[in-house]
Amino acid sequence: MNIKVIALFILSIGMYSCTKKNSETRKMDEKYRPQIHFTPEAKWMNDPNGMVYFEGEYHLFYQYYPDSTVWGPMHWGHAVSPDLVHWEHLPVAIYPDSLGWIFSGSAVIDWNNTTKLGKDGKPAMIAIYTYHNSVLEKEGRNDFQYQGLAYSLDKGRTWTKYEKNPVLPNPGIRDFRDPKVSWDEEHKKWIMILAVVDHTEIYSSDDLLSWKKESEFGKNLGAHGGVWECPDLFPMKDPDGQSKWVMLVSVNPGAPNGGSGTQYFVGDFDGHTFVTTQKDAKWMDYGKDNYAGVTWSDVPKSDGRRLFLGWMNNWQYARDIPTGIWRGAGTLPRSLDLVSENGDYFIASHPVAELEKLIENTEEIAPLEVKGISPLKKDIKLPMTINLTYNNISGNVENFGLILSNDNNEQVKIGYDKIKKAFFVDNTLNGWQSPNKDFAIISYAPYVLKTGKVNLRLFLDRSSLELFADDDKVVFTNQFFSSEQYSKIEAFSQNGEVKLSDIKINTLKRIW
Ligand code: FRU
After folding, report:
1. Is 376 left (phi over 0), alpha (psi -120 to 50) or beta?
2. CATH of the domain at 370
3. Position in ligand 1 atom list of the atom nearest CA 130
4. What is the overall mean pLDDT for the chain?
5. Atom number, ligand 1, closest to the C-alpha of residue 178
6. Candidate from 74, 137, 177 with most ligand 1 atoms within 8 A of CB, to mutate
7. Staple partner for 148: which of 4, 165, 345, 364, CB 3.0–4.6 Å?
């Protein structure tokens, strides 16, 4: 080959990769397409599944129906990320088979080869999920959900179903699903937490293949507006370095603002039984759109974070949202901390620090006094974040916050209501109304502010907001569907003044 031919060759490769990149970029750029959140390229997605870290990749599997934009026979879709922010779409990982559709579940790395499914000294990635057998369901039987196992020896790219499935048969109970498996380092065994109608059940195993029932939890505790789903159980350190265990349990319906939501319990676990002194539910999120969230397995000890991600949707209107060729998204990934106040425990959810990579431009705005409505920024471009602190809020002011709006009189309002003693997100004028009218509402999070100031962080994407308030102790995740993109932000206060400080607006790069 002479120099000219080589040059032409290099040029054509360059042009090919350029075209490829452009068409991919165009694809993920529709009107409501999240720009800083995970979405499948097309079709229906619900719960995140099998979240596990392995060899430099965060895996995100998810409930996926590749033939439609509404829920149907479930598969596990698959994506990987080096940093929890940028995602690469991979082919469908696990397909339904004669045992049933593939419902929610989890994945772990079998480091000690307890299953003997690893090969040549390499550990297997193990997925444990619910088989939902629609044939048995139609026959009117109760035992149509049971737990199956599949393994991968190539970083989750291809999967083999375990030949002796199911690994946990159904005892005759209709709702028996969503196994979350983890290695319990303290008690040196595998544990599985399962959602069973109105409670969770804990199982243990030495090899992930045969399971022993240990205990039940929660029949008379927490929220029971609907069936319990997608639990998680993991240890956390409190601020004094003391060990506690946290149980997450999604419930649908029964969320504080209607429909689907995720509650948590803080307590102790002795390898057999989870106990808590907590009676009432505490909520991971008070927005309408954070469901079925669980945490990543096998995050390296050197990292040490407990990382969470939910499905940014709500079964009340999940099949109606006007998104386009895809339906369903992930929330932002969050790192969880256990905080304690007056002897009571709470989870604070922090947007992961990796998101800071997306900052394109930062604008700092000088402190300002707000009485009524004050403009903050015009001609905004989503995605973006706003951080700010409200000061002197112990005065007369009754209600304060931010308004995001467009020229079509559509808006979303977020803030704190001192009369109601609650943070709120007012979606009533967002621009879209679900058929059953449970989308465009005001969501509240009861919360007593203890000092004269409060900080807020707001992440805005093209069709969602995530509000982290008072050091991330109160969270709202809400979708909105405005006819035109929101173009301005204002601050407001009602019946009194507030002073805003530490105002920082970041425009963000898109992840695709
Ligand atoms: C939660 C859920 C799970 C189930 C899955 C089915 O959203 O209902 O309980 O495994 O979705 O797609």
Report:
1. alpha
2. 2.60.120.560
3. 10
4. 95
5. 10
6. 177
7. 165
18 pLDDT exceeds 80? no
CB distance 323 to 463 below 8 Å: yes
Q: What is the pLDDT of residues 239-248, one digit of tens each?
A: 999 999 999 9
* Whether residue 371 sits in one domain with residue 250: no
Both structure tokens of 377? 């920024």
Element (H, E) at 184: strand 176-184
* N residues, the chain: 512
17 occurs within a structural domain: no
First to last CA, the chain: 37
Residue 94 is predicted with a pLDDT of: 99
Ligand 1 close to Cβ of residue 131 (< 6 A): no
* In-domain check, residue 9: no
- So which residues are the catalytic ones? 47
For residue 27, the model assigns a pLDDT of: 85
Domain stops at, among 282, 317, 351: 351
Instruction: Please indicate, yes or no, whether residues 499 and 449 belong to a single structural domain of this protein.
Output: yes
Q: How many CB atoms lie within 10 A of CB 24?
A: 13
**CB of 74 closer than 6 A to ligand 1?**
yes
The number of domains in the chain is 2
Looking at ligand 1, which atom is closest to the CA of residue 227?
9
pTM, 2 dp: 0.95
Cis peptide before 166 (omega within 30 of 0): yes
β pairing state of 411-417 and 422-426? antiparallel
User: Do residue 471 and residue 432 come from a single domain?
Assistant: yes
Residue where a domain stops, chosen among 351, 370, 388: 351
Q: How far is the CA of 250 from the centre of ligand 1 (A)?
A: 10
Tell me whether residue 18 is in a domain. no
**Range of 112's domain?**
35-351
